[in-house]
Design goal:
Elements lengths: L1 H20 L13 H5 L2 E3 L7 E3 L9 E5 L6 H11 L2 H7 L3 E5 L6 H5 L6 E4 L21 H12 L15 E5 L6 E6 L9 H9 L7 H4 L1
Parallel strand pairs: 3-4, 4-5
Antiparallel strand pairs: 1-2, 3-6, 6-7
Pfam family, one: AhpC-TSA_2
InterPro entries: PXL2A/B/C, Thioredoxin-like_sf
GO cellular component, one term: cytoplasm
């Protein structure tokens, strides 16, 4: 009877742990970024001789849609990159660029990611686009049913990847207006494969009001 009670208790504890792991109770809570925070982020081009610049240059005239990539070799990230790239013709019509930032430049990972992403890619060495407070999902992600559903969805879509690079710091997607229009959409990945809603991205992009120069105002 004693062993049965211990076994039942252990089973109950495991079931409770599994249940809690599939709620949002223990998920890291995102801290909203401010426009000022994003503007001051240091980025670099990925050329042989990198050029450093402030992130505000990406959106100061026409706004921008920006993906903070969790890991270029991740098949879930490649899936989201392809989804966002499907919006590129409509974004081009609106005059809004599509960009991505990565937190590291490992081997040929960025080059191998480019077939999935139809915009320019820059390096965020200090991982600021993944903040202000970086959030990580560790091995708890592998017991979440939502993550396994995302795995199955991406695999069924024909996406594949590798295990190169850091993949625990969660990414996101931003739609930022020009000048001081601000952040129109901020999607923070809550678990592996938690994709942004494409309709929401497009709706936010349509709210962007391009900056008019002083000469145009005259």
């Amino acid at each position: 009877m004693g062993m049965w009670s211990i076994g039942a208790g252990a089973l109950g504890a495991a079931a409770l742990a599994l249940f809690l792991a599939n709620t949002d109770v223990f998920l890291p809570k995102p801290q909203k970024a401010t426009l000022e925070y994003l503007e001051d982020i240091d980025l670099k081009t990925l050329e042989k001789e990198p050029v450093a610049f402030k992130a505000k240059a990406l959106w100061e005239n026409n706004g921008a849609v920006i993906m903070a990539v969790r890991r270029p070799g991740c098949f879930l990230c490649r899936e989201e990159a392809a989804d966002l790239s499907s919006l590129k013709p409509k974004l081009d019509e609106l005059g809004i660029p599509l960009y991505a930032v990565v937190k590291e430049h490992v081997k040929t990972e960025v080059k191998d990611f480019q077939p999935y992403f139809k915009g320019e890619i820059f390096l965020d060495e200090k991982k600021k686009f993944y903040g202000p407070e970086r959030r990580k999902m560790m091995f708890m992600g592998f017991v979440r049913l939502g993550v396994w559903y995302n795995f199955f969805r991406a695999r069924s879509g024909g996406f594949s990847g590798n295990l190169e690079g850091e993949g625990f710091i969660l990414g996101g997607v931003f739609v930022v207006g020009p000048g001081k229009q601000g952040i129109l959409l901020e999607h923070r990945e809550k678990e592996f494969g938690d994709k942004v809603n494409l309709v929401s991205v497009l709706e936010a992009a349509k709210k962007i009001k391009p900056q008019t120069s002083a000469s145009e105002k005259k």
